[in-house]
Design brief:
Elements (H helix, E strand, L loop, with lengths): L2 H36 L4 H12 L5 H15 L3 H15 L2 H10 L5
Helix pairs in contact: 1-3, 2-3, 3-4
Amino acid sequence: MNYDSHLQSICGIAKSIQALNRQVVREYTPVVESILHSRSRDISHIEHTLDELLSFCGYEPALVLYKKLCRHYWNLDQFATARHIDAYREMWDSEENEITTNASAGGEV
């Protein structure tokens, strides 16, 4: 394979990832909105939805859904919500973000 073929393959993969991200947001937006609108207390359903969304939080619209659901869940179980926030940070926060956040907050780097 030459350079152009590799580049085309990479572009194809990137387009597939973008399409998957958009599909996930289309499918999970009504799920999250339903949970919020009904003020659901179904812990299993909420946690399952958070688990499913976590893999897509690198895509801003999915992250927005994740955050909305975490805010709702916080009122039901703060400890479990904190675990989901930690899972997000472990998967998606970079060390660069942590250093920048600590420095701007006056913390040690």
